[in-house]
Amino acid sequence: MGLSQNVVFGLVTGSYIAIAAIGFTLIYGIVNMINFAYGEYLTIGAFLGLLAVTMLPVPLPVAVLLAMAGGGLVSLALARGFFTPINQTGPVPLLLTSIGLGIALRSAIRLVAGRSARYYDTETVTYRFDSLPDLSVGSVDLLGGFFVTSEHLIVIGTAVAVFVVLHALLTRTDVGIAMRAMGDDESLARVRGIDTQLIRDSVWVLAGVLAGLAGVLMAIQTNVSSDTGFSHILQILSAAILGGAGSPYGAILGAYVIGLVLALSTAFLPSGMTGLSSAVAFVILVAVLLVKPSGIAGKEVREA
Amino acid sequence: MFGQPGALTGAFDFLQPGVSQAADAAVSHINEAGGPLGAELEVVRRDTAVDPQEARSVTTQLVENDDAAAIVGLFSSEINPLWNFLQDLQMPIVTPWPGSTFLDTRGGDKATPGDISDDEWVWRTVVGDTVHTGGSAVYALEQGYETLGIINGNTEGERSYVDGFLSVYEANGGSVAEQVEVELGASSYQSALSRLFDAEFDAFLVSMPQESAITALSDWSDGGYGRQPILSDTLAQQEVIDQVGSDLHGAWVAQPGRSGPSYDTFEGIYSEAGDAAINGWTPPSWDSVQVTALAIERAGDTSPEAIQQNLGPVSRGDGTPVSTFAEGKEALANGEEITYQGAATPTTFTQHGNVFGAVSINTAQDGAFTQTTQVSAEDVREYVTEGEY
């Protein structure tokens, strides 16, 4: 196994980071805040899905829908309860509130669910592609055989579906067009008759729905614990910033760059440095921002 | 009263029920025999969440507020960073948990029980990493696994386990083909495994905490990589088999043995006290309470100095062998010296407050980990220098 296998792994990681990063960056672009509590929305979604699968019990697709609905409701409720009332006080109070709310949510989840990890009971089916043409270049194996599991396919396929739906939402619906208008200039959007509070609420719900979905996708790969979202928030933040903060298309691009860098750096770092793959991802993030402070996609993708 | 800092929550909370039940069973058994110095013994258990700062607070509370006579808990990850604090506390800490090689030459009474000026106040009733990783390495070589791949977490505990294993493995002809270190808590270890299994080796060692190990081993199963897995000591858990599945069958774990002379006595009393499963740290928990109570009985005093000075004498030498506090109390009342024969090991404390014993090999088969063999204490001792452990 070589490059092709690690590209598969990177695409899987990038896919669920991308779904989460879209929600995160929509909040940044339209509500104009960095929401550090967002990781906990993922955790809540993952636990809601797990409860649905184990206690109701319902099939995984139904559990995913419940997790998405729960994520949306939690996100809207917390926005209405905490962020909207202090929206006019500026970015710093909003940031501090989100940090405090994140800590409180994580503690509450830990109190209810405990610290131990819980597992989705999903059956894995592995698909092997061992008879591909040999496209080796030097010592680098390009397509010499790799495997994907059903979970890989679920994650990547779901991400592609989300991207298609999101694109349609942003370009073909009144709500989506209004979101883009608000992202560009809220005052102008308000003058043009857009109900900005309704659009804000829509963004909160959409971000929560995406967080719930991403939480379940992360959890079926590994497990869910009270730290699930917190342990991923830096990757989500990095993807959003790398792609161009506020741009959902940029967040997708940033997420796949992060996912691929994580996979490929583990595979190709010198021995003794393999534990530094996350550090490599962040070094690349800083390097890109030094060259292009607006992120890879920057303004032009946001306006696409 | 004995204070027991423990993992009521946190990374090793799945091991705590067995440890708690063993301590509670020991306390009941001791009280049925009249208690140390005729008083009723009690264990107050508080949660450290395996966090050093929390452990510091909990230990202080147990000593200062609860008036504990001794501490029968604390993990390596708590003891090592708090070493100076624990020495300043001057409280006997007789713990069933720590494996760290850091304690190989730290702790105990330095074989001078009458003189506490050279003492260090930590004792452990479980064999250290040097012993059971040595046993694991000896067993691997005996099975013909001469080339190894390693995947380990990037924390001190995981590295210490690998270092202990390799010190015996490489010194006796084994070689490492590839070692991949990973961050704990990642959502996937597939890239690391892809890299590891590009190398040629007979068996691979997994040194990670349970949750990360389940992720890595599930990825290993999905990838169909095969080869012989060797797991670090805390991974012989039903949850690991349940989550990873049948591909794990044949994997083995070397754990602190259950080969103390009084293991059967312990097991009989323990099984009547509850239904928590016995793990590698359960018999040492029983031993820590028993030997500390015996030290009080011999001392005729519950001061920290008196307990510290008597832990060595009740565990070493040619005194009357005793399996429980009840037998020891009776022998001491008759004016005899005693030697406590433990459940996990003989509990003969070295000068550094360590114990030495057999290593049990537990293999995943038929949906559970079962003990398949043991590496004897004599076989392991061949590779562990006396005086340096």
UniProtKB/TrEMBL annotation, chain A:
Pfam families registered for this protein in UniProt: BPD_transp_2 (PF02653)
Domain of life per record: Archaea
Keyword Heme on entry: no
Compartmental location: Cell membrane
CDD domains hit by this protein: TM_PBP1_LivH_like
Topology in membrane: Multi-pass membrane protein
GO biological process terms held by the UniProt record: amino acid transport
Primary subcellular site in the record, as a coarse category: membrane
Transmembrane segments: 6-31, 38-56, 62-82, 94-113, 152-170, 202-222, 275-292
GO terms under cellular component: plasma membrane
Keywords carried by this UniProt record: Amino-acid transport, Cell inner membrane, Cell membrane, Membrane, Transmembrane, Transmembrane helix, Transport
InterPro entries: ABC_transp_permease, BCAA_transport_permease
Assigned protein family: Belongs to the binding-protein-dependent transport system permease family. LivHM subfamily.
Name this polypeptide is given: Branched-chain amino acid ABC transporter permease
TrEMBL record, chain B:
Pfam families reported in the protein's UniProt record: Peripla_BP_6
Keywords attached to this entry: Signal
Domain Leucine-binding protein: 6-311
Keyword Ribosomal protein: no
Name recorded for this polypeptide: ABC transporter substrate-binding protein
Claim: Signal is one of the keywords in the record: yes
PANTHER family registered for this protein in UniProt: LEUCINE-SPECIFIC-BINDING PROTEIN, PERIPLASMIC BINDING PROTEIN OF ABC TRANSPORTER FOR NATURAL AMINO ACIDS
